[in-house]
Amino acid sequence: MNQFLSSIALLGTLVIAAPTFAQTPPPVTAGQPQPPSSYYPAPPPLQAPSTQQGVPTTGLSSPLPAGEHKVERTDIASDAEAQLFADARKIVWGRYAKIKGAKAGEVTVTRQGNLWVVKGRIDSVAPGTEGDWASVDGVVERISAGVVQMKGEVAFRIAKLENGTPCKVAGTLHFRRSGKSNVWRLAEGDNPCDGKREGFDLVLEKPAEKKPVPAQPKRS
Description:
It is a single chain. The chain contains 2 helices and 9 strands. The chain has helices spanning 2-23, 79-85, and strands at residues 75-76, 88-93, 105-112, 115-123, 133-144, 147-157, 167-176, 183-186, 200-204. The protein has a domain at 75-204. A hairpin with a 6-residue loop joins strand 7 and strand 8 (183-186). The longest helix is centred in the N-terminal third of the chain and has 22 residues, at 2-23.
């Protein structure tokens, strides 16, 4: 009877230990294929995959275009044109120029070292256009015969357009003069909001010459 019970106990021990032996994979030597395993979904690799060293990130440059070149000096290709443009003092706004009561605006051309700067504004006072205005603000890149090239912007504020938000033409601007005219007209003068030609002009006006007053004879 004792022998029978001992046999049953030994058989139970073997049954319990069997799964443990089944889960232990046999040793594998290098270079040999791995035998089927109970791991799911696959056994771990014997060696992690190798990686290549990447390109160093130092010395990289941006693919975006560089900012626009800053104008530091005005190129004078025509001294005669430069002398004329130096006396530009008025702005005429073609949109309202023919309305009774319209008046010209003012513009100043100054020289800051080798750089010419242009600033001006016209406020419309013609009936029904009060509150509308136009302005110019920029630096002169080049002055050649009949052409003044600027970098800057011209803005047009018209109450009935874009709820009164100024419509701007910006970037490289060209003011052209023809023949013996005293007017430089903006070539890029189409209003970007309604497409109308603005007729934005800078007008030469030489200061009135003061005639010397003759000396009065001394009374004796």
